[in-house]
Write a structure and sequence with these properties.
mainly alpha; 4 helices
């Protein structure tokens, strides 16, 4: 058991895991989104930032509800 489970219980950890899965992209989708951004003309490599929406790419690409402002993903 993890320290988290010891502290909050298995049921809470299970609910938290399900919530995370609903909010966050899986690793494959995240990788595809990042790769799309890396090839984009609006991507600033030094800042890891989109010059179109000013997001931090590694963060924005991980959240399912977020989308590319120019519909690339």
């Amino acid at each position: 058991m993890s320290w988290f489970t010891d502290l909050f219980g298995q049921e809470f950890e299970t609910k938290l895991t399900k919530l995370k899965d609903q909010i966050m992209c899986d690793d494959q989708d995240h990788k595809e989104r990042v790769n799309t951004c890396l090839k984009c003309e609006h991507y600033n490599k030094n800042m890891q930032m989109c010059q179109k929406c000013y997001c931090i790419v590694p963060i924005k690409t991980k959240i399912k509800a977020f989308h590319c402002p120019i519909n690339k993903w």
